[in-house]
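Problem: given the chain below (179 residues), write out its structure.
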Amino acid sequence: MTSSNLTFRPATREDLPAIVALLANDALGEKRENHTLPLPASYEAAFTAIDQDPNNELIVVDSPDQVVAGVLQLTLVPHITYQGGWRAQIEGVRVAANLRSSGIGKQLLLWAIGRAKDRGCHLVQLTSDKARPDAIRFYEGLGFVPSHEGMKLHLDASVDDSTTPASALLRPVQGDSQD
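Solution.
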């Protein structure tokens, strides 16, 4: 599919159910997302925070066959390294299952890379769960290289006791990542 057949646009509140359904539509996403309607208020709060932040963009792609055929979040981050350079972080990349391998994912990523260049970024980075070998091959095919070893530390939000040592708020993470 070519980019001329696709529309890239900022997500709207009305897109949230479709976005969350995309995020939940794989083995990892189905464990951590809740796409029952009405959606939990946390999704609405996250959308508001992203929408109000000029360095965050939640982008959807519409195809001739489907509104919200894909989604990604592009976050622009200033760094002291690289002489104060900006980086683009891509997260939450999903394409509707019935449209995978159609070229939409490639066009979505190319759009995001172009947007990062337009915003003055010197680097685009992303992470992908090691349990997603097809996604990793896809990103490598676009020129991304596994140059760093990424690590995550999940914070247990269920503990709300200011007297609890910080180490007690942490839980180990194995085989679970955001993307």
